[in-house]
Amino acid sequence: MHSLKALRFMRFARSCSGSAHTATPLESHASRTAEVIDGKSIAREIEGEIRAAIDEIFTRGGRRPHLTAVLVGDNEGSSVYVKNKIQAAKRTGIAADCIHLPSSTTQAVLLDIVQRLNNSDSVDGILVQLPLPSHIEESVICNAVLPSKDVDGFHAVQMGRLCLNMASLAPCTPLAIVEILQRIGMSTYGKHVLVCGRSTIVGLPLSIMLGSSRDYVTVWLSTAGGGHISKVRRK
Questions:
Q1: Catalytic residue at 97?
Q2: pLDDT score recorded for residue 23
Q3: Known catalytic residue at 152
Q4: Given this model, what pLDDT does residue 127 score?
Q5: What are φ and ψ of residue 8, in 5° steps?
Q6: Which part of the chain is the Tetrahydrofolate dehydrogenase/cyclohydrolase catalytic domain (predicted)?
Q7: How far is Cα of residue 145 from the mean position of the Cα atoms in its chain?
Q8: At what angle do helices 76-91 and 39-59 cross, to 10 degrees?
Q9: What integer pLDDT is reported at residue 210 of this predicted model?
Q10: CA 20 to 30 Å from 137, out of 7, 28, 53, 184?
Q11: CB of 151 within 8 A of CB of 127?
């Protein structure tokens, strides 16, 4: 469990680093003061915490957690993303490797590889990089990963537990957003929150996480092209 938590927070730290890197006030369209969040600084802080926790486990005789990423095809964006994840893992003391498969890989072959990783005692976390080639059903692959090794938090079990407000491995980008708000001391109590997009990776789980809090927050969930976004934003 400690190993999986370390893997999850490592991924989460990488999501934080996508935020802006300065912390200066800006004027919004509604003449309200907005704050640019220093996500890179938060990511470095979290990576340091993870590194210290893993080093302590190792000095007590435990082994370092092991993450295996699976990349299918040669999508340039996916390749860069996986490379960054591997580098982040190594910075925090996590052992990490990548299985790179050709785009012609069949769904059956990919399922066999996922099952082998599920059964491996040396692998603590599995990350199948999305998107997958069109001939492979992403939902089938995501749900083939053991929930206990599902670093992405895409398994139906994880999403179900999230909806029921139970302990779960939430997708890392929504987790990063919620954690950033907590770390900078920004309360959502009594506020209206507009979430643009309904993807099962970001928008939907984020709306669930915010809506299930005890902050009495009102969550507006909309598609990116929704015509009522500007009306909600003015609230």
A1: no
A2: 47
A3: yes
A4: 96
A5: -65, -45
A6: 37-152
A7: 16
A8: 50
A9: 86
A10: 7
A11: yes
Domain count within the chain:
2
Q: In sequence order, what DSSP letters do the residues of 153-198 get, joined into one string?
A: --SHHHHHHHHTT-S----HHHHHHHHHHHHTT---TT-EEEEE--
Of the residues 38, 124, 150, 152, only one is catalytic, namely 152
Q: Which of 124, 129, 149, 158 is catalytic?
A: 129
Residues 228, 161: Cα–Cα separation, whole Å: 31
CATH code for the domain in which residue 184 is found:
3.40.50.720
Residues of the chain under the 70 pLDDT cut: 1-32, 214-217, 221-235
Q: What is the C-alpha separation between 199 and 221, in angstroms, rounded?
A: 10
Catalytic residue among 85, 124, 149, 158: 85
What predicted TM-score, i.e. pTM, was given to this entire model?
0.79
In a domain, 199, yes or no: yes
231 is catalytic: no
Q: Which of 152, 184, 209 is the last residue of a domain?
A: 152
Question: What local confidence, expressed as pLDDT, does residue 226 receive?
Answer: 55
